Amino acid sequence: MQGAILKSFTYENSGGNGAGVILLDKQITNNEKQKIAAEIGLSETAFILKIDDENFDLSFFTPVCEVELCGHATIAAFYYLGLINVIRGSDEVVKVYQHTKAGKLGIELKFNKGVEYVLMQQQSPQIFDEFIGQDLKDIAITLNTPESNIGLNGAEIYPTVVSTGLKDIMVPVKSRQILNDLNVDLNGIIQISNEKDVVGYHVYTVENGKVYARNFAPKVGINEECATGTSNGALCGLLYERKVVSNETEVIQGESMNEKSLIYVKVVDDNSIINVYAGGKASFVKSFNL
Description:
By secondary structure, the protein is α+β, with helices and mostly antiparallel strands. It folds into two domains: 2-123 and 279-289, Roll (Diaminopimelate Epimerase, Chain A, domain 1), CATH 3.10.310; 126-268, Diaminopimelate Epimerase, Chain A, domain 1, CATH 3.10.310.10. Helix content is 22%, strand content 43%. It has helices at residues 30-40, 71-83, 133-142, 176-181, 186-196, 229-241; strands at residues 2-8, 17-24, 45-52, 55-61, 66-67, 93-100, 103-111, 115-122, 126-130, 160-163, 167-172, 200-207, 210-217, 222-225, 248-253, 261-270, 273-280, 282-289. The chain has an 18-stranded mixed β-sheet that branches. β1 (2-8) and β2 (17-24) form a beta hairpin. The relative contact order is 0.18. The model has no long low-confidence stretch (mean pLDDT 93).
């Protein structure tokens, strides 16, 4: 069993979201995985068990619980597999699959003198509740911002629950300044996350064709993180459906944390079946043995 720490969704050789990656030689218990994830202490740790050359079993643990899917830990995991030559390629795109609690999902690794970037397929976006009225007021209160700041300029869109594997409330705000100035009530977000059966809030705005976002998931032990693949995939699926963005979108996250990260999202509309791929670059931090 060997491990590493990598940063996913790095932007201009900085930023990115740290993830633990554990390559297993045999399956271990969830209690053992939870203990390791807590010791590593990053927002998520991915545990990988190779099935064959094209298929890998993955599970994801925060310091406090298991989650069905994690975008940045997936990017870190498959970048690492390419880095240590478990997955091999040369100036080509190699497609493999991860088997997760969110289903069997495709992974694309672009090789160009090493791994250039990784894209992960997500489930087709599912759009659930849209919040208006008292729910909208309550969300604004937990963000410590006036209700009038919620929404997008030029588009009629409200806080909406969306999932491509994990449910989040996608909360629009009207400017990048509003987004970066948020000083949120984490306990309030936990309460609403429990009431609405979601992981957390993905708060965003759109400026000059780019999406800017912040992610708050204190319910699962993540107060804020600087790059979130699953949430941004779900968000861009929603914004594509609402005709706010095109089928290829760049999301900047972590700006207010001084950890600016870039998540690239591609939406493929195949005869009205929407497939979402989210990914980006990764950087190796360190390896360790367990």
